[in-house]
Design goal:
binds beta-L-arabinofuranose, 20 strands, five-stranded antiparallel beta sheet, Tachylectin-2, Chain A, about 10% helix, mainly beta, four-stranded antiparallel beta sheet
C-alpha cells in the first residue's frame, strides 16, 4: 500500500476507535439526554433509525408564514444530537408556501422519501395538502418528488395533514393521515407517486378511532399492530396520546386509553409523538413535543424523549414525562 494511503487508513481507524470509545464512556458515566433533547421550538417529531443512527424530523414550530423549511437531528446514542439544517426548503417545492408540517420519512431501495403537509388547506379549492420529497441521503437535500401534492382534497372529512407511512410485514406501504378528527388509511403505490385502490374500489378508507384528533402513528410488536394518535387541541394543555391494538393495519381500532399527557410538575400539552425501538437493547422510546410549564404561546413546543414500557399483557404503560430524558443507548456495539 502506498505510504500516504496507509497513513490515512491508520488515522481513520484511530478516529473511529476513539469515537466509539468516547460513546461507551458517555454510556458508562450515567449521563442522560435531558429534556428537551435539543434547542429550539420544534414539534411533531418523527423518530426513526437509519443505518445505525437515530434521526428526528420535526416541524419547525413558528407562525405559519415562517414554517417554510425542516431541520433534522441525528444521534448515535440518544444523548448527543447533531443538527442538519434546512433538509427541505419550500423554495424547492413550488406549490408549498407555508405551514410545512409533521414530516414522516421512509427509506426504500436506497432512497429517502419525506412526506409532509403544507399550506394548512381549509377546503378543496385551496392549493396544498400532503406532499412527498426525495433524497439519496437522510440529511437531504430533499427535492419535490411529484411537483404537486400527493393528496390535495378532503376525503371522509380528513384534512390532508399529519401523514405517517407504515411498512407492513408483507412489504406494502400504507399511509395513515388526517386532521379535523378524521383518520384515513391508503395504500401507496411502488414509487410513491399515488395510491393503489383497495379491493372494494375505495382509495381512502376511514379508520377513525374514538377520541382521534390528529397525529397517527403505527408500529408492530409481537405480531400486533399498535395504532396511536393525538387527542385534544395542540395549542392547549390537554394535548395527549392514546392508542389501540389490532390484528391488522386496517383495524378495527378500539381505544384502550391515554399513555402520554401533561404532568403539572413537568410540562403541558404532551402529544404528537413517534416511537423508536432499539433492537439490540430492546428498549422502546416515545419521542414527542410538549410545552414548558406556564407557557401560553401555542408555538412554544419542544422535542422530548422518554422510555415507553409494556405490561406483561402487551399493553403500553402510562409514560412518565421527565426532565432527565433517557440514558445513552447505542444502536450498535
Ligand atoms: O405543528 C403543526 C400541527 O400541530 C400538526 O400538524 C398537528 O398535529 C399539531 O401538532
Amino acid at each position: 500500500m502506498p505510504k500516504r494511503i496507509s497513513t490515512v487508513f491508520i488515522l481513520v481507524s484511530f478516529l473511529c476507535c476513539y469515537a466509539s470509545a468516547q460513546e461507551r464512556k458517555t454510556a458508562e458515566k450515567g449521563v442522560r439526554s435531558g429534556n428537551p433533547l435539543f434547542q429550539g421550538w420544534y414539534a411533531d417529531p418523527e423518530g426513526v433509525v437509519f443505518k445505525g443512527r437515530y434521526w428526528i424530523y420535526p416541524t419547525y414550530s413558528a407562525k405559519y408564514e415562517e414554517q417554510v423549511f425542516f431541520d433534522a437531528f441525528s444521534s448515535s446514542d440518544l444523548v448527543t444530537w447533531k443538527k442538519h439544517p434546512r433538509i427541505l426548503d419550500t423554495s424547492s417545492v413550488k406549490w408549498a408556501k407555508r405551514a410545512v408540517w409533521a414530516p414522516a420519512i421512509v427509506e426504500k431501495k436506497g432512497k429517502y422519501y419525506l412526506f409532509f403537509g403544507a399550506n394548512d388547506i381549509q377546503n378543496d379549492q385551496e392549493k396544498g395538502g400532503i406532499g412527498v420529497a426525495v433524497s439519496a441521503k437522510p440529511e437531504g437535500p430533499f427535492k419535490d418528488h411529484l411537483g404537486k401534492p400527493l393528496i390535495d382534497k378532503f376525503h371522509n372529512g380528513a384534512q390532508p395533514i399529519d401523514q405517517f407511512v407504515f411498512k407492513d410485514k408483507d412489504g406494502k406501504y400504507y399511509m395513515f393521515y388526517g386532521g379535523w378528527r378524521h383518520c384515513n388509511i391508503a395504500q401507496l403505490n411502488d414509487d410513491f407517486t399515488g395510491f393503489v385502490p383497495f379491493a372494494d374500489g375505495k382509495t381512502f378508507k376511514e379508520i377513525t378511532p374514538e377520541g382521534y384528533v390528529e397525529g397517527p402513528f403505527m408500529f408492530i410488536k409481537n405480531g400486533k399492530y399498535y395504532f396511536m394518535w393525538s387527542e385534544g387541541g395542540w395549542t392547549g394543555p390537554d394535548y395527549s396520546v392514546a392508542y389501540a391494538i389490532a390484528d391488522s393495519p386496517m383495524g378495527p381500532f378500539k381505544r384502550i386509553g391515554k399513555i402520554l399527557q401533561q404532568d403539572p410538575q413537568v410540562a403541558t400539552g404532551a402529544g404528537h409523538h413517534s416511537v423508536v425501538h432499539n433492537e439490540k437493547s430492546d428498549k422502546w422510546y416515545i419521542i414527542y413535543h410538549r410545552r414548558p410549564l406556564g407557557e401560553t404561546n401555542g408555538n412554544h413546543r419542544v422535542v422530548c424523549i422518554d422510555e415507553m414500557q409494556f405490561g406483561d399483557d402487551g399493553k403500553i404503560l402510562p409514560v412518565k414525562i421527565t426532565f432527565e430524558g433517557v440514558k445513552p443507548d447505542l444502536l450498535k456495539k
